[in-house]
């Protein structure tokens, strides 16, 4: 296996991943698999592009060399970024599915048992239907076969996630400083993004969430130019990214004095995270983690709820989401045990404090041989700006007349 100068990990890391995948293929009696999920392609080969809306697929035979099917423009990424020796490119006027079927037949896999990711976002139903019609019998859904390896991060992956955490923390600190009365949500988002990128971070799968005052009660709302007013809080969620690996965090900023209910919410979330870090270790079930989180947060006396899962696996991600929750989410009823190398974004956040505020403190953690450790060093307390409004330069907002 060759190494490109721009590859994230040494060849040995990819050799291990490919070897373990083939062991799972053999156990399922698969002669080859077709991988189309961008995160899985990155995991196996280091391939990445923002052009993943065009069909791309990695054919991994059980015994012979792997081959990438890609749009002609994107083949440059295969050559420059990956260890792959073989690729087949189709033009924009070409037919990607016919190219896939032709390549399988050239590899003498036309009558073989071939797995494909039936639940991949980027292998839509109409293409799958054409693939079935053109290829015939022998297709087997192997969704999750790569994710079985991704769920446990190697020491090398942990190191890259630590760099993502560093970038995310740099952005969060900048956002906390900027989130003062008189600033707009756009000012805050700009500060976060600039700081993350200057710290070595790359574009995250989701840009920062910045929601001030009543807008914090709207799920997944982010900056829209609203000016932060005196006395208002600002909910921030930032995902740092490095080499497509992510580490995420929630924090809260308060403008004005910290009320009793906000202090209570802050202290309960901090306590919950501390309890989770003490509790989580190999052998503890996912369901137990959810129950502990939910029981603590729902004991609050400020009218808040935990309206979502307690957390989710996190690692490689492309837009539109930075989480690996489809692999593992911290939900009730999942009795799978935690294992060393698993990484999670823990989100014991609180929706509806005093009936009209969402606040959050979260952590990205890794499961160690005998416990749990955080990737983050950023203080968890709410940042409180008590001195009033901050003067920001006036910038004309974007309106329909300026577009």
UniProtKB/TrEMBL annotation:
Cross-referenced InterPro entries: Creatin/AminoP/Spt16_N, Creatinase/aminopeptidase-like, Creatinase_N, Pept_M24, Peptidase_M24B
Keywords linked to the UniProt accession: Aminopeptidase, Hydrolase, Protease
SUPFAM superfamilies (alphabetical): Creatinase/aminopeptidase, Creatinase/prolidase N-terminal domain
Nucleotide-binding among keywords: no
Domain called Creatinase N-terminal: residue spans: 17-151
Boundaries of every Peptidase M24 domain copy: 160-369
GO molecular function terms noted in the UniProt entry: aminopeptidase activity
The protein's name in its UniProt record: Xaa-Pro aminopeptidase
